[in-house]
From TrEMBL:
Zinc is among the record's keywords: no
Protein name, per record: Integrase
Keyword set, alphabetical order: DNA recombination
Keyword Cytoplasm set for record: no
Species classification: Bacteria, Bacillati, Actinomycetota, Actinomycetes, Kitasatosporales
GO BP annotations listed: DNA integration; DNA recombination
Record organism: Streptomyces spectabilis
GO molecular function, one term: DNA binding
Gene3D superfamilies: Intergrase catalytic core
Domain Tyr recombinase as annotated: residue spans: 206-421
Length: 435
């Protein structure tokens, strides 16, 4: 800087010390200093001083087209959580709710950036653009810890669920890896953080939610009494719930099932060839603007098919369903009265009423088959307890064998007495101890 003095004022001594430390660190790294501002590249304006918000927008731009609707949702959720935490100190900070709304609904999602913005959103976006920290500052380990702290908390300041934290951390880690790839950072700051939030628990299925075959049949009968004859809401969903139990399908897979995917003979076993899923994602994240995304099967290559043999009870349910309700225009078996994809709130509401009809008051107040998804758990557990080899069960359910054995190795409801009897029989046959 050729002996030219430069001055910068700070309100507190710690702020001045932090700025001095950044200057010394830049000098140690050999960064060029601007002769006009006296600042190193990492602290002056321009490409070298890319802000974390700008990086987040770049990352979303690069990933949006290929990301599923749920991935888009997760991506913007994580970034809207951490961007407001990485800001310069100063007055004028807005509330967390308006900042999050601005990021999630206007600044980050690619198709929503051109929407007309209310005044409070304009102010929030302007503030966060000015306040967002230069990316280079994340090389400080204290900043990396601030990222972890932000990801660990909900909007109200309470601890976030472990699954939420891990999902958000994975997104931010990938964003910073992208910065390394673009050579904006020498390394990923989060890779240096060794702090852990407890051990990662295996997401085992609670055996209390799993119905036995008799209970499943009673539930599938009870659903036909829900909704009245004219609306036929329960009857329209009977085969849908049957797919979740007898074929262990995910709800999104059943919603995407077409008549052409099914082989339904007049008697005996049939077959389903699953190729598509319609997961609930929200209109903001799908390309179509519909609430359901349209994707290939979970954890499978695009175009890959999963073949599931289906037992005669499900074959009958599907044949009866087609005879009474036909199919949607695109061939889907399960559609609303208007032909749309059935909303999760609709089939969940019918399921709630079904439980009240089929189960005892004690069971209704329990977690037994609390969600429609629990029918899938029951179906997989029934296969395992029937002696079907784990690799075959995994193939039919769309799991890896490892995940299957960790999550679904559960006995179905109602088998406890049978298990106890087997244990007693073994104890009695074993005889007493020898002297």
């Amino acid at each position: 800087m050729d002996g030219e003095p430069f001055h910068e004022s700070f309100k507190t001594k710690p702020l001045a010390d932090r700025f001095r430390a950044r200057l010394l660190r830049a000098a140690d790294k050999g960064e060029p200093f601007d002769t006009v501002t006296g600042l190193p590249d990492s602290l002056r304006g321009g490409e070298a001083a890319l802000s974390f918000l700008e990086l987040a927008v770049k990352y979303v731009d690069a990933r949006w087209a290929e990301a599923s609707a749920k991935q888009r949702d997760s991506m913007t959720d994580a970034l809207a959580t951490v961007v407001p935490a990485l800001v310069k100190p100063g007055r004028g900070r807005l509330g967390p709710k308006v900042l999050r709304r601005a990021l999630r609904s206007y600044v980050l999602p690619v198709p929503r950036r051109e929407r007309e913005r209310p005044e409070e959103i304009v102010a929030a976006a302007r503030w966060i653009e000015k306040a967002s920290l230069p990316l280079a500052e994340l090389q400080e380990i204290a900043r990396a810890h601030e990222v972890i702290d932000a990801l660990s908390r909900r909007l109200d300041g309470k601890p976030a669920a472990m699954q939420t934290y891990r999902r958000r951390r994975a997104v931010v880690f990938n964003v910073l890896e992208y910065a390394v790839e673009l050579e904006h950072l020498p390394s990923n700051p989060l890779a240096r953080v060794r702090r852990k939030r407890g051990k990662r628990a295996v997401q085992e299925v609670d055996r209390r939610v799993v119905v036995n075959p008799r209970q499943a049949r009673e539930l599938l009968t009870a659903v036909t009494y829900v909704g009245g004859y004219d609306r036929a809401s329960g009857r329209r969903l009977r085969a849908f719930f049957g797919c979740l139990y007898y074929a262990a399908m995910r709800p999104g897979e059943a919603l995407g099932l077409r008549r052409s995917d099914c082989t339904l003979p007049a008697s005996g076993w049939g077959r389903i060839e699953l190729a598509e899923t319609r997961p609930t994602a929200g209109k903001a994240w799908t390309d179509s603007g519909e609430a359901h995304d349209r994707r290939g099967l979970k954890q499978r290559a695009r175009g890959e098919v999963r073949i599931v043999p289906i037992p005669p009870p499900l074959v009958r349910l599907l044949r009866e369903h087609v005879k009474e309700f036909g199919t949607a225009k695109d061939g889907r078996l399960f559609a609303s009265e208007r032909g749309n994809v059935i909303a999760a709130s609709s089939y969940s509401r019918v399921w709630k009423q079904t439980r009240e009809l089929a189960l005892t008051p004690h069971q209704v107040s329990s977690v037994l088959a609390f969600r429609p998804y629990d029918l899938r758990h029951a179906g997989v557990s029934q296969w395992l307890n029937s002696g079907v080899p784990a690799p075959e069960v995994a193939a039919r359910a769309g799991h890896s064998v490892d995940v299957l054995l960790k999550i679904y190795a559960k006995c179905i409801d109602g088998q406890e007495k049978e298990m106890n009897d087997r244990i007693m029989q073994g104890l009695e046959e074993g005889g007493g101890p020898t002297d």
